[in-house]
Design goal:
Layout: H1 12-15, E1 20-23, H2 35-49, E2 52-56, E3 68-71, E4 86-88, H3 93-103, E5 110-113, H4 141-150, E6 170-173, H5 178-187, E7 193-200, E8 215-222, H6 230-245, H7 255-258, H8 261-268, H9 273-279, H10 281-291
Parallel strand pairs: 1-2, 2-5
Antiparallel strand pairs: 3-4, 6-8, 7-8
Helix pairs in contact: 2-3, 4-6
């Protein structure tokens, strides 16, 4: 089975004759990382075809304690939003699968093989395991730490990833003034991070914005990952680009991964990002109550 764009959902023919499907994927702890969606699609297909699903659980690389970010709007499920959950749900893939199976009444025969030795507060570098890139553009734990927020810029007219860059830690565009943006974001005093003005020439394929062009932007320096709220950082970055550059920035495309129109409209209206983040805490509290039923560690 290959998770290709034209064939994301396993078919009955692919499952024919199987007793079980074993899922062994390294999730990255972020809602729009599509391994969650692939797992849900297998649950749906397996339930329809009476095939068991066995998940070999793996660590959440950015820890299983922090639960952060706006909860995606129910009814807006798609390939980057498999379920109504925050950007950083603080769960393992096995726990999420149990949630999907129960809350969406999928009814799959699901077995989760638990890890031994992993604690909820562990980051991936506490595990002693070798980091293997889950994607060509996610090459380190530091990048995964920022990904839970800065990926909101993916798909807009901002360069955020590429083979020659520091994906999800650096972003830029020809219309950004790096010194201006870095100064603005540093004045925001976002916990755990600071910003360095940079200029670079993105490399890679044509689907990376501004390949071969000189761009200015910022690089994110993470000083304390335990203080960083990456989804709030992502909202800060979006709000800064909108405030400084207005409609030059394709802000509507942020909703592709944000999946929360209220938050997007608040950003567009100029609301302070800290006030926006305070507004989603009630939804987070309700999600945490749901989440507690499915925690395995």
């Amino acid at each position: 089975y290959g998770p290709k764009d034209s064939d994301k959902r396993p078919s009955a023919a692919q499952l024919a004759g199987l007793d079980a499907v074993v899922i062994d994927l390294q999730d990255v702890g972020v809602r729009y990382w599509t391994f969650q969606t692939l797992t849900k699609y297998f649950l749906l297909a397996a339930a329809a075809n009476e095939v068991e699903v066995i998940i070999l659980d793996r660590p959440n690389p950015i820890g299983g304690t922090a639960v952060q970010g706006p909860v995606s709007t129910p009814g807006r499920e798609d390939y980057t939003n498999p379920h109504s959950e925050p950007m950083r749900p603080g769960m393992t893939l096995g726990e999420l699968a149990s949630m999907f199976n129960a809350e969406e009444r999928i009814g799959a025969r699901l077995s989760v093989i638990r890890m031994t030795g992993w604690k909820r507060g562990d980051w991936f570098d506490d595990s002693g395991l070798l980091w293997i890139n889950p994607s060509p553009n996610l090459r380190s734990l530091i990048q995964a730490t920022a990904y839970g927020g800065t990926a909101l810029l993916e798909g807009t007219n901002v360069n955020i990833k590429g083979p020659g860059e520091a994906p999800f830690l650096r972003f830029g565009a020809p219309w950004i003034k790096g010194m201006e943006l870095a100064a603005y974001l540093n004045r925001r005093a976002i916990p755990g991070v600071s910003f360095l003005a940079v200029a670079y020439v993105p490399t890679g394929e044509k689907y990376y914005p501004f390949v071969g062009q000189r761009v200015e932007g910022v690089e994110i320096i993470i000083h304390d990952r335990t203080r960083l709220d990456a989804p709030a950082l992502g909202v800060e970055a979006v709000a800064a680009l909108w405030k400084l550059y207005g409609p030059t920035f394709q802000i509507e495309k942020v909703d592709r991964l944000l999946r929360n129109r209220l938050v997007l409209e608040q950003i567009k209206a100029g609301m302070d990002p800290r006030r926006i983040a305070a507004g989603w805490q009630a939804d987070l509290k309700r999600f945490k109550a749901r989440r507690a039923r499915y925690l395995l560690y």
